[in-house]
Amino acid sequence: MASKIAIASLIALSAASEGLRPWEAPGPDDLRSPCPMLNTLANHGYLPHNGRNISAQQFADAALEVVNIDGMAIKQVANYFLRAANQSFIDLTDLNRPGILQHIASLTRDDVKDPDSVDVSASQDRIHHLIQDSDTDCITVASLAKTRLHVEDLSSPQELTVKEQSLAYVEAGLLLLVMNDGPVPSGWSFPPATAYCAPKKRVETWLTEERFPEELGWKKSERTLGLVDFVPVIKGIFEEKRLQAGKGPLWKSFIPSFLQQETDTNSEL
Ligand code: HEM
Ligand SMILES: *[C@@H]1O[C@H](CO)[C@@H](O)[C@H](O)[C@H]1NC(C)=O
Ligand SMILES: *[C@@H]1O[C@H](CO)[C@@H](O)[C@H](O)[C@H]1NC(C)=O
């Protein structure tokens, strides 16, 4: 009995020294969003656990403290939504409103058909697919490109707008950087697309349970991640997608296809 208590307090102590607040599943009256990270922050109590009445500053503070992502950038995203929704405080379910940030062809959520939908649950099928799209132990730039193509196929013939496409790239980048194994390479060092690895088990646990998978080695980045750190990843996913879709390098898309055929024929002669 005494040893049980000792073990329990040891666990509590080690949790305290790691500095993460304990995870608690959302209750029946708690609201959640279509964003896996905001839900995780609420589940760990860094955003109100009930998911209600949250300001842009609260989003930014939580993301900076726990994930170490540039607070100004996060505040801008949050403010963009708040302004469009004409609110100073939002409930997490508000983020499910289509056409502001929420969009079709998500990595983990089925398309929302009803604009008032409060169903923000992740699709186990989609998470499974995202994991299976990589044949290594890592989610990578290449596997995310494959997943993006797959989910865009699922939504077809509906297509993402240009703005939504950019959001989708940023979100895929967030996933990879936040779950990356080891320090995230600086965007200024022009790392190759292969420099990133988000261990599958970590990503799966995070997305399924919406909790920080500390026992799988997850740690917040020691360096504050800024916009420039996303550039190599977004560029990588963009280029990989084109390659995998058989579209070839970007420069080809600027050359009319009849000219491309001409060049191909010439080179055969
Ligand atoms: C550390 C900060 C954040 C991280 C790591 C993060 C991560 C992600 C990821 C990976 C997705 C894609 C999910 C999917 O495609 O299924 C996503 C979606 C989303 N995020 Fe976040 N997010 C962050 C902050 C925010 C903030 C501040 C907001 C707004 C207040 C926000 C709102 C959304 C929304 C509305 C979606 C749904 C988009 C969709 O329809 O798929 N996120 N986020
Ligand atoms: C939301 O939070 C603000 C600031 O903390 C507070 O003034 C307001 O009364 C709250 N609204 C509700 C409905 O709880
Ligand atoms: C925004 O909110 C203000 C104050 O509540 C209100 O007067 C205004 O009509 C709202 N605008 C829109 C577009 O909903």
Automatic annotation (TrEMBL):
Claim: Ion transport is one of the keywords in the record: no
GO molecular function terms attached to this record: metal ion binding; peroxidase activity
Gene3D superfamilies: Chloroperoxidase-like
Protein's UniProt keywords contain Iron: yes
TM helices/strands, residue ranges: none
Record-annotated Heme haloperoxidase family profile domain positions: 19-232
Superkingdom per UniProt: Eukaryota
Signal sequence bounds: 1-19
Keywords: Heme, Iron, Metal-binding, Oxidoreductase, Peroxidase, Signal
Cofactor: heme b
Residue runs in coiled coils: none
Assigned protein family: Belongs to the chloroperoxidase family.
PANTHER family: PEROXIDASE STCC (PTHR33577:SF9), STERIGMATOCYSTIN BIOSYNTHESIS PEROXIDASE STCC-RELATED (PTHR33577)
Official protein name in the record: Heme haloperoxidase family profile domain-containing protein
Species name: Hypocrea virens (strain Gv29-8 / FGSC 10586) (Gliocladium virens)
